[in-house]
Structures are given as structure tokens and as C-alpha cells.
Design brief:
Elements (H helix, E strand, L loop, with lengths): L4 H4 L15 H15 L6 E2 L14 E2 L7 H13 L8 H20 L1 H12 L7 H16 L9 H10 L4 H17 L5 H11 L7 H28 L10 H7 L11 H21 L9 H11 L4 H4 L10 H19 L3 H13 L2 H19 L3 H12 L4 H18 L3 H18 L4 H15 L7 H10 L3 H27 L2
Antiparallel strand pairs: 1-2
Helix pairs in contact: 2-3, 2-17, 3-17, 4-15, 4-16, 4-17, 5-7, 5-12, 6-8, 6-10, 7-8, 8-10, 8-21, 8-22, 9-20, 9-21, 10-21, 10-23, 12-15, 17-22, 18-19, 18-20, 19-20, 19-21, 19-23, 20-21, 21-23
Length: 506
């Protein structure tokens, strides 16, 4: 539940009511309603698709309208969670978030995490800010290589207490993770879910345009680190500079690292070793090694399956690099049981701590389905193709520099309406990549423009379950987050446009 000023302070006796930003759920429902209204006025249309299900440029045609009713608006979050014929659901992500909550509940029950965090704070006394660039670089690399996004939900409950304990605030912690991963996604180098899908749709190699994507990665990561570091320094100097100062003390109490009363015990050390190993395994399992012609994990998987007696463990296992949400959800479920066994936890304590941890994540899980409801309304209302067609008409026949700049601008609202990078790449790249070739802009640069726009919008858009989930966990209102990130977003947009125009000259 979001912490708002009205909940923390009794209102002053005055005739005026102070405006408070609606909750994340309310904002998303308002957007769903507005887009449903649009389906009554925007012409319905479709593109022909190829064997891979991609739109074919120049084949747009109007079809019979399917305006969305009140019933459709109410059903949109339901389909957003479980999916329908035109839109995949968020149920896998939501279940992952619930299991992560349960996993963290079990870990917290052991006290190992609190003791470990306290140890980090003690060992880094006076140099806490060095964690900001180090962690942001790591998260940026995760975003750039495999599109790290929803997976970060597991890190917020860990990092927020650390940042608050050393004198920063929850905004600093969210910036490290959310900004770090999204500037990485913005500058995706080999991300299979953005660069891979887009390159495949455009008919080019994933390696084409790598140089300019590396330029984006270095520039945007550097700017974001400086921006976050500067904000954290201001908060450290004077907590009144915090954008969440109105509930700063409440946050310190809520996210406080509990006193451990001593050093880590042997059992707690074992728990932390398992805990850190599980996150390392998650990262390794999500990187698509086969796309980089690295097959060691496939070979290891086959080797283990072939060992006598081990097929009972690995017979149906997928190799690392081919895992996704179901597999990593299974991982954290299994690790939570392992931790309970290693620590000597009773069955009742394990179930209670797991359920209590999952309960803390219910609002975060639900918001994933509500945010996906926006895409459900657009797809079911048959207006997604029409919006793309308008872009197709507007960008045809322009000079290279103007084309790439307008392509970037076109992708800004499209990333708001279709926040999933894979969905946006699959829906648009078959159209815009050929258009770019017609005016002398290489397909890889169109892909870079798409990634840059999608990444910066995913710092702002309330249609992103990642943003809304992160803010729900950290008790930050959408208004406070926008106040923090709008200047950084403006800087990124200006720098992105400049780099794209420069790249189009070569």
C-alpha cells in the first residue's frame, strides 16, 4: 500500500482540501477508461502478418470497429492477468513476485539478511556512496544484456533498508535499481527481448549497430550515476532534500534493519551463501547463452541427464540460458525450502513466514495485471495497428536525420501504449526498418531509436508494471517519482536525439 501524506498526518483545519496523487491502481484504471473511449473514435484497422506473426508494411486496412464497453473496461485487468487471444497475461510475473515475497519472508525469519545488511553498513561506514555507481553499473549490464526488468522486484526489499540505514532514502534505492536497469535496456547491446526480437523482425544480425549501442550504454549510464549520486548526496547532507521527506521517519521505521545483537552465526552464514547463490543462478539462467554461440550449459544439462541415477533430478530440466519466469519462480520456491532445512526451521514456521512474505507482495502482483489491461483494451479495440499506420504515413520519405529523429519521437508515445519491448519491437519493426532503408537510414539505427525511446519511457510511464510495482514496494507516490526523474528523462531524451542524428550521418 502506498504511503500518502493524508495517511501520515492529520489534515489541518482549513476550508481547502489538499490534492493528493491518486494511487497507482486509480491512475491505471483512468488510462484504461480513456483508451476505451478512444476505441469509439479511432478507426479500427489491421495489418497482414507473415508466418512469424509480424506485420507486413503497406498492408494496413480498416476493419469493422470493436469499441470497448464498460464490461470490457472491467474485464481488461482480468485479461491483463491471465491473457486472451490478442494479449499475453502477466500471471507468470505476478506469481514470481508472490513467491519472491515468500522467499524473502523465509530469509527474514532467519535474521541472516538483517545481520548481513548490518555487516555491510558497518564495513562501508563513511564510503556508502561507492555502492551507487557499482550497483548501477551492474544493473545496467543486466538490462543491456538480457533486459533485466521484472526480475528486479526481488532486489527492492533488500536495497531500500540499506540505503535508508546509511542516510539516503527510498528514492535513492529505487533509482539505483530502476534507473540502472532501464538505462541498460535503453542501450540494449545483445538483449534478446528487445535487440534480438527487433533485429530478427528487421532481418539483420543482432550484432549490427553494436558500436552505437555501446556509446548509448556508456553515456547514459554515466549520466544516470551522476544524477543519482548528486541526489543522494543532497539527502545525506540534509534529509529535508528528500522527495519523500513527508514520510521520511515512517520509512526509516518501516524499512529499518532490525538489530541482530551480534555477529552472523554459522547457520546465518550458510543461509546468506545460499541466498546470494540463488540470485547468481537466476542471472546466469536468464542470459540466452545460445544466441552468443555459448553452449556449455546445454552440454552440462545433457551430461547430467545422462548420468546414472541423476535422470530422476534432471530428466525434464531446461538448460541454464533457456529459463524464464516459471523456472526462476521454481528456483526461489525450492531455495526457500532449502533455507528452511539448513536453518532448522519447523514446518509451521516455514509456512507462516512464507505466507507472510507473500502477503506483503499482493498489491505489487495485482498491479501487474492492471497495467497489462491497457494493452488488452488497445488490442481488443483494434486500434494498435491504426496508431502504427499513422506513424508509417508520417515518417515516409523524410531526410535521414529528420527520419531518425521523428522515429525516436514516434516511439515515445508508442512505448507508453505498448510498454513491453518484445511486443513493441514485434509490432513495429517490420514496418519502420524498411521505411528507414528507403530514406538511407540503416535498420540497426531504427532499432537503436526504438530501444532508446522505450527505455526512457519506462522510467516514467504508469503503464509499466515494473515502475508501479517498484513504487508500491518502496512507498513512493507516482508524483514524487516523476518529480525525481523528469529532469533525468529530459537529459536522456536530448542526448539520445543528438547521438541518433550523429549516427545517421555515418
Amino acid at each position: 500500500m502506498e504511503v500518502t501524506e493524508s495517511k501520515l498526518h492529520k489534515p489541518k483545519k482549513s476550508g481547502k482540501k489538499k490534492f493528493t496523487m491518486p494511487s497507482s491502481f486509480t491512475v491505471l484504471f483512468i488510462l484504461i477508461i480513456l483508451l476505451a473511449i478512444c476505441t469509439w473514435f479511432i478507426p479500427a484497422g489491421q495489418y497482414d502478418v507473415n508466418d512469424a506473426g509480424r506485420y507486413i508494411a503497406g498492408t494496413y486496412h480498416q476493419v469493422k470497429a470493436n469499441p470497448q464497453s464498460v464490461y470490457d473496461v472491467l474485464m481488461a485487468p482480468m485479461y491483463g492477468m491471465v491473457g486472451n487471444k490478442l494479449t499475453s497475461g502477466a500471471i507468470e510475473v505476478a506469481y514470481f513476485i508472490l513467491v519472491i515475497g515468500g522467499f524473502l519472508g523465509v530469509v527474514n525469519k532467519t535474521g541472516a539478511l538483517d545481520a548481513g545488511i548490518a555487516s555491510v553498513i558497518k564495513n562501508n561506514k563513511g564510503k556508502e556512496k561507492i555502492l551507487i555507481p557499482l550497483l548501477m553499473i551492474l544493473f545496467a549490464l543486466g538490462g543491456s544484456t538480457y533486459g533485466m526488468a521484472e526480475e528486479t522486484m526481488a532486489f527492492y526489499p533488500l536495497l531500500i533498508p540499506v540505503m535508508i540505514s546509511v542516510g539516503f532514502d527510498s528514492v535513492t534505492a529505487v533509482s539505483i535499481i530502476l534507473v540502472g536497469t532501464q538505462v541498460g535496456c535503453l542501450a540494449s547491446t545483445v538483449n534478446p527481448f528487445a535487440t534480438g526480437v527487433a533485429s530478427d523482425t528487421a532481418g539483420i544480425s543482432i550484432g549490427e549497430g553494436l558500436f552505437w549501442r555501446l556509446v548509448f550504454l556508456v553515456v547514459m549510464t554515466g549520466v544516470s550515476i551522476f544524477y543519482t549520486y548528486r541526489y543522494a548526496s543532497k539527502v545525506e547532507k540534509d534529509p529535508k532534500n528528500s522527495l519523500v521527506y513527508d514520510h521520511f521517519e515512517e520509512d526509516k521505521a518501516y524499512f529499518k534493519v532490525r538489530e541482530t545483537g551480534g555477529e552472523l552465526t554459522k547457520k546465518q552464514r550458510r543461509v546468506l551463501t545460499i541466498f546470494m547463490s540463488s540470485f547468481a543462478l537466476m542471472v546466469i539462467s536468464l542470459i540466452p547463452w545460445g544466441k552468443f554461440n555459448i553452449h556449455i550449459f546445454e552440454q552440462l544439462n545433457e551430461f547430467l541427464k545422462g548420468l546414472p541415477g541423476l535422470n530422476i533430478l534432471f530428466k525434464d530440466a531446461s538448460p541454464l540460458g533457456e529459463w524464464y519466469f516459471l523456472e526462476i519462480t521454481m528456483l526461489f520456491m525450492a531455495v526457500s525450502i532449502l533455507i528452511a532445512i539448513v536453518y532448522g526451521m519447523s514446518e509451521k514456521d516455514y509456512i507462516d513466514s512464507f505466507m507472510n512474505g507473500a502477503v506483503d507482495m499482493i498489491s505489487v502482483a495485482l498491479i501487474c495485471g492492471v497495467s497489462r489491461g491497457i494493452q488488452v483494451i488497445m488490442n481488443d479495440g483494434l486500434i494498435t495497428a491504426t496508431v502504427l499506420h499513422w506513424g508509417e504515413l508520417g515518417l515516409r520519405g523524410l531526410p535521414p536525420q529528420l527520419f531518425i529523429l521523428l522515429t525516436y519521437i514516434f516511439y515515445l508515445p508508442m512505448a507508453f501504449l505498448i510498454p513491453g519491448t518484445s511486443s513493441l519491437a514485434g509490432a513495429t519493426m517490420g514496418l519502420l526498418a524498411p521505411l528507414g532503408e528507403f530514406v538511407g537510414v540503416k535498420a540497426h539505427l531504427v532499432i537503436t531509436a526504438f530501444q532508446a525511446a522505450s527505455g526512457v519511457l519506462n522510467l516514467l510511464t504508469p503503464t509499466s508494471g515494473v515502475i508501479m510495482g517498484a513504487l508500491a514496494i518502496s512507498h513512493i507516490s507516482l508524483a514524487a517519482w516523476w518529480k525525481f526523474v523528469w529532469k533525468l528523462s529530459a537529459i536522456i531524451i536530448i542526448l539520445s536525439g543528438a547521438i541518433l542524428v550523429l549516427a545517421s550521418c555515418f
